[in-house]
């Protein structure tokens, strides 16, 4: 096994025990970047010399007894919405062609303090306003979409071009690409991870979270990210936990909600079968399955778009009016549509969200977690715009991908996506676990328990 193939936790153990140096790990990852990046296009910017210098500094500090913890010397990618001092934050757009960040975002600063090594900035759908990341190819099949908008981060981790990465999630943009590329993605509770220095899509729906190879790795990264920052008005001033899950597979007494409605409607049969097998596995580990009714399903799509579209348009109002030609057509059309939305529709979406949060809180009193598919279809061909379901219903690809993930953004509850198999074409299938606000520890415990019963996952092979 090459160092770039190690999970974060395994690499950290090797570094801590002085069996692997950060320099060796970083060189291995950069060699993998040289091999795979020309085929996958996960990165918009690669800072190889900066990474090598940071790895040497990490090795020196560790040798001198100044080990900072499990992220020290670990190579990472950051989505190109996340400011890093002196580095461009283009957000995938010509609008930002001349932008350079004057200071680190909160999350970049925390990861730097933890000793992580930046490899580069990863591609995003323009301003995170899409579910495909068209610049980037799927790590398992280059002819298929990577998913978005954090597609670059997911592909970098899935292919070994980063040991972990950060993404952002407004309607599923961490969980969708991680499901499509066979890695783990965590959308934390709204406000748990500060967003200061992160380009916004929709401020009342935006989240920042980790993309990793294992559930345990996600907990390690979340430990470094979580915590109050007064510069983010939505940041929660609540104590943070130790999110790294303990070893063990006993789920006795845990109540797992299995949705009767919405989450298993209009999905690929192979996905349904894989997710239900994974849920049965949780039951075999001691969990009790409880049927639950997903509340207010008829309002989910309207609420998601009713919040996101006007907030995105408000953020882009100045440049949309002065340099509209610099936006890609798909994003420009969505932003212009936001200018036509009446204020009353936005207020109704806010009211719907309030009611939805109340109903989800009631549902989550009955169970500890909810288990459901992350996306209804595996990665589609890059030139495909719609999905036709068995009953003849035709759905836009982006609408399909956001459909099962957006409820967690509307309600703000945490959601963890993890791989649970592959379809007949060899494409990854993801299951998401949803929990109560600030219930990340429970999600990570359940996901880790499931993961420990499964064979070790290989890296993607499309490169």
Automatic annotation (TrEMBL):
Record-linked Pfam families: Amidase (PF01425)
Signal peptide position in this chain? none
Q: Name one GO molecular function term.
A: catalytic activity
Q: Which SUPFAM superfamilies match?
A: Amidase signature (AS) enzymes
Q: Which domain of life is it from?
A: Bacteria
- Amidase domain location: 24-444
Gene3D superfamilies found in the cross-reference section: Amidase signature (AS) domain
Name by which UniProt lists this protein: Amidase
Organism of origin is Streptomyces monashensis
């Amino acid at each position: 096994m090459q160092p770039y193939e190690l999970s974060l936790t395994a690499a950290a153990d090797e570094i801590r025990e002085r069996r692997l140096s950060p320099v060796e790990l970083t060189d291995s990852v950069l060699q993998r970047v040289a091999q795979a990046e020309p085929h996958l296009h996960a990165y918009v910017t690669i800072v190889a010399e900066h990474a090598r210098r940071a790895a040497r500094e990490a090795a020196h500090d560790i040798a001198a007894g100044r080990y900072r913890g499990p992220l020290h010397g670990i190579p990472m990618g950051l989505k190109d919405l996340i400011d890093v001092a002196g580095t461009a934050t283009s957000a995938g757009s010509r609008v930002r062609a001349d932008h350079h960040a004057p200071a680190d975002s909160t999350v970049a600063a925390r990861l730097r303090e933890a000793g992580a090594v930046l490899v580069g900035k990863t591609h995003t759908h323009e301003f995170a306003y899409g579910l495909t990341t068209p610049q980037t190819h799927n790590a398992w099949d280059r002819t298929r979409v990577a998913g978005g908008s954090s597609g670059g981060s997911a592909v970098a981790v899935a292919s070994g071009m980063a040991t972990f990465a950060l993404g952002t999630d407004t309607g599923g943009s961490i969980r969708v690409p991680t499901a499509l590329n066979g890695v783990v993605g965590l959308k934390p509770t709204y406000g748990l991870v500060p967003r200061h220095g992160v380009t916004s899509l929709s401020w009342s729906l935006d989240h920042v979270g980790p993309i990793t190879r294992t559930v345990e790795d996600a907990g390690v990264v979340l430990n470094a990210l979580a915590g109050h920052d007064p510069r983010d008005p939505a940041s929660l001033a609540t104590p943070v936990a130790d999110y790294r899950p303990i070893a063990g597979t006993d789920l006795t007494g845990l109540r797992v909600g299995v949705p009767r409605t919405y989450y298993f409607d209009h999905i690929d049969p192979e996905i349904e079968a894989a997710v239900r097998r994974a849920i049965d596995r949780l039951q075999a580990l001691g969990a009790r399955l409880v049927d639950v009714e997903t509340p207010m399903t008829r309002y989910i799509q309207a609420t998601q778009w009713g919040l996101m579209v006007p907030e995105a348009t408000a953020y882009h109002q100045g440049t949309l009016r002065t340099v509209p030609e610099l936006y890609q057509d798909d994003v420009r059309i969505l932003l212009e549509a936001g200018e036509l939305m009446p204020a009353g529709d936005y207020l109704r979406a806010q009211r719907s969200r309030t009611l939805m949060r109340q109903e989800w809180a009631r549902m989550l009193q009955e169970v500890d977690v909810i288990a459901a598919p992350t996306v209804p279809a595996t990665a589609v061909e890059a030139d495909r715009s719609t999905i036709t379901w068995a009953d003849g219903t035709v759905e836009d690809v982006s609408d399909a991908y956001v459909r099962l993930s957006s409820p967690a953004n509307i309600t703000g509850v945490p959601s963890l996506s993890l791989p649970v198999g592959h379809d007949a074409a060899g494409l990854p299938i993801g299951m998401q676990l949803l929990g109560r606000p600030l219930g990340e520890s429970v999600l990570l415990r359940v996901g880790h328990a499931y993961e420990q019963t499964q064979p070790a996952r290989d890296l993607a092979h499309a490169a």
